[in-house]
């Protein structure tokens, strides 16, 4: 399948670019959702990388060398502290979108320190933990993110570190969003 090949080519190129900068990285979005929630199709790959705004320029240069065209960013996502740059990998049969979130806050750095290695296919990848992916989904809070957050709670809920989730939901100002999700699911914690 062309999209699968484009995914693996784009992901491999991103990882090489990040590692050439000695940057830690991890997947967020649909890839770790397959591990912690309900798997779903996606047409992009989402990463967090251990670079701040100053490192974004070095990342842009490495991404360009790796075959990515810059689409936008770094830009702050409205009503969140998330800073993202958007790229398209053009060296595959099908162009493939990659969103890279920069580490600009204490929480971003903590999340990278908590990442876990999971094997998909023949390779190990770094993923956000279930708790951290849930918090990312609460911050984004689009319709798809609500569904994703609910699937994480449904599949991983009993094993989640709820003290951590509640503490960081409060610190990230998404505690009311978390409370609403749990009420809607009938799972007040």
List the helices and strands and how they pair.
Layout: H1 2-20, E1 25-28, H2 30-36, E2 44-49, H3 55-65, E3 68-76, E4 83-89, E5 96-102, H4 106-114, E6 116-120, E7 123-127, H5 130-140, H6 143-156, H7 162-171, H8 175-185
Parallel strand pairs: 2-5
Antiparallel strand pairs: 1-2, 3-4, 4-5, 6-7
Explain this structure to me?
The protein is of the alpha+beta class. It has a single domain, classed as Beta Polymerase, domain 2, CATH 3.30.460. Helices cover 49% and strands 23% of the residues. It has eight helices and seven strands. Strands 1-2-5-4-3 form a five-stranded mixed sheet. A two-stranded antiparallel sheet has the order 6-7. A hairpin with a 6-residue loop joins strand 3 and strand 4. The longest helix is centred in the first third of the chain and has 19 residues.
Can I get a quick summary?
The protein has 189 residues and is α+β, with helices and mostly antiparallel strands. It has helices spanning 2-20, 30-36, 55-65, 106-114, 130-140, 143-156, 162-171, 175-185; strands spanning 25-28, 44-49, 68-76, 83-89, 96-102, 116-120, 123-127. It is built from eight helices and seven strands.
Task: Tag the structure with descriptive keywords.
single chain; 189 residues; alpha+beta; Beta Polymerase, domain 2; 5-stranded mixed sheet; two-stranded antiparallel ribbon; 8 helices; 23% strand; globular
């Amino acid at each position: 399948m062309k999209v699968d090949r484009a995914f693996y080519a784009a992901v491999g190129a991103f990882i090489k670019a990040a590692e050439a900068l000695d940057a830690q990285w991890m997947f967020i979005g649909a890839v770790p959702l397959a591990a912690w929630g309900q798997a779903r199709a996606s047409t992009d790959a989402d990463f967090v990388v251990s670079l701040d705004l100053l490192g974004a320029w070095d990342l842009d240069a490495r991404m360009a060398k790796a075959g990515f065209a810059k689409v936008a960013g770094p830009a702050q996502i409205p009503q969140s502290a998330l800073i993202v740059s958007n790229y398209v990998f053009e060296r595959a049969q099908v162009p493939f979108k990659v969103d890279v979130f920069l580490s600009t806050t204490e929480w971003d750095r903590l999340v990278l320190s908590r990442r876990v290695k999971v094997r998909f296919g023949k390779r190990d990848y770094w993923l956000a933990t279930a708790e951290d992916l849930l918090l990312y989904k609460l911050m984004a809070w689009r319709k798809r993110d609500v569904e994703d957050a609910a699937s994480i709670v449904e599949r991983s809920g009993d094993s989640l570190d709820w003290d951590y989730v509640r503490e960081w939901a409060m610190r990230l100002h998404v505690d009311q969003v978390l409370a609403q999700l749990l009420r809607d699911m009938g799972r007040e914690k």
